[in-house]
TrEMBL record:
Family: Belongs to the NAD-dependent glycerol-3-phosphate dehydrogenase family.
Functional description taken from the UniProt entry: Catalyzes the reduction of the glycolytic intermediate dihydroxyacetone phosphate (DHAP) to sn-glycerol 3-phosphate (G3P), the key precursor for phospholipid synthesis.
Source organism of this protein record: Paracoccus seriniphilus
Listed name of the protein: Glycerol-3-phosphate dehydrogenase [NAD(P)+]
GO cellular component: cytosol
All copies of domain Glycerol-3-phosphate dehydrogenase NAD-dependent N-terminal, residue ranges: 3-143
Gene designation: gpsA
Length: 313
């Protein structure tokens, strides 16, 4: 198996570093003018067997491609380059739902590359941790009983342990939805509402995640696994998370650098629209969408959530 990664942001670069333990890796970035240290991942030197390039053609000789682009970028990228990827094994790593189609990365890839085998790599993992070689466990979702195990072995290393599932919908939705709840958790802490309120938001947020994912065909055990509960726990509790930090700044009424990749912001809007379309109640996600747009104050959002009709758990 020959591997290339498209997207030389923090995560694509970290995956390249991890997978270089198994052999050569191509890493493409549209503006990859650096070669040995990515400014998005300071302090990490690229091993010699990573070919960092801004020439897409040169990395498309690989038979297996990891797509490490943000979710809202993927659709446009596939429109431009999908034909050249079609037929290859494609592994999605984006954690979001496309705002214009309300579909996840795997559906976008399937539409653009109908002859490809598609997998999803997701779970609790900060790019900096992976790049430093800290032990990490992830979910690899692939519907193919042949390609799934092959990928699982090729993408695992002594410090990167992949658990296999065939539940693509569950793995993908867990990763996308946890980012929305992480923003909510950040808001709670940023606004000074306390750890008890955060535990409530995480738990009720997880209930929303499992409800929506279940309606969209996910298996419950996937949501309680690494790609759901695992990643939710990480992202709602660590200031390393950009989604959590975005929430912190919203809660504290402080500015935030909008150039930072915060997947949960657009995905909250997509989730709210999706929930309305299928008639599912997602009050936390809907509130995060409104807060991220600046359409409601934190005080009003808390009041609205706390005064909803009382119900059974
Ligand atoms: N950073 C992390 O710790 C983790 C990130 N992820 C996921 O990986 C995905 C990518 O995130 P990061 O690498 O962290 O983001 P990042 O912000 O570090 O990098 C994004 C990359 O996308 C590139 N890009 C933007 N627009 C583009 C376009 N039109 N064409 C080509 N390239 C374009 C940028 O140049 C940049 O290199 C996200 O879905 C994120 O949720 C998943 C696990 C961990
Ligand atoms: O997905 C992640 C950890 O698993 C990274 O989270 P952020 O995108 O919030 O930084």
């Amino acid at each position: 198996m020959t591997i290339a990664i498209l997207g030389a942001g923090a995560f694509g670069t970290a995956l390249a570093v991890a997978l270089s333990a198994n052999g050569p890796v191509g890493l493409w970035g549209r503006q990859a003018s650096w070669r040995r240290e990515n400014p998005r991942l300071p302090g990490i030197t690229m091993p010699d067997n990573i070919d960092v390039t801004d020439n897409l053609t040169s990395v498309l000789t690989a038979d297996t491609i990891l797509l490490a682009l943000p979710a809202q970028i993927l659709r446009g990228f596939l429109a431009d380059h999908g034909a050249r990827l079609n037929g290859k094994t494609l592994v999605s790593t984006a954690k979001g739902i496309d705002i214009s189609t309300l579909t996840g990365p795997s559906a976008l890839i399937a539409e653009a590359c109908p002859e490809s085998c598609i997998a999803v790599l997701t779970g609790p993992s900060f790019a900096a941790d992976i790049a430093r070689g800290l032990p990490t466990a992830l979910t690899l979702a692939c519907a193919s009983g042949i390609e799934g195990p092959r990928l699982q072995h090729a993408l695992s290393t002594p410090v990167l342990r992949l658990y296999l599932t065939s539940d693509i919908a569950g793995a993908e939705l867990g990763g996308a939805l946890k980012n929305v709840i992480a923003i909510a958790a950040g808001i709670v802490i940023g606004a000074g509402l306390g750890d008890s309120a955060r535990a409530a938001i995480i738990t009720r947020g997880f209930a929303e995640m499992t409800r929506l994912a279940g309606r969209l065909g996910a298996r419950p055990e996937t949501l309680t696994g690494l790609s759901g509960l695992g990643d939710l726990t990480l992202t709602c509790t660590s200031p390393q998370s950009r989604n959590f930090r975005f929430g912190l700044s919203l809660g504290a009424g402080q500015p935030f650098d909008r150039a930072t990749t915060v997947e949960g912001a657009a995905t909250a809007g997509a989730v709210a629209a999706l929930a309305t379309r299928i008639g599912e109640d997602m009050p936390i996600a809907a509130m995060v969408a409104r807060l991220a747009e600046g359409a409601v104050s934190v005080e009003k959002a808390v009041e609205n959530l706390m005064t909803r009709p009382l119900k059974e758990e």
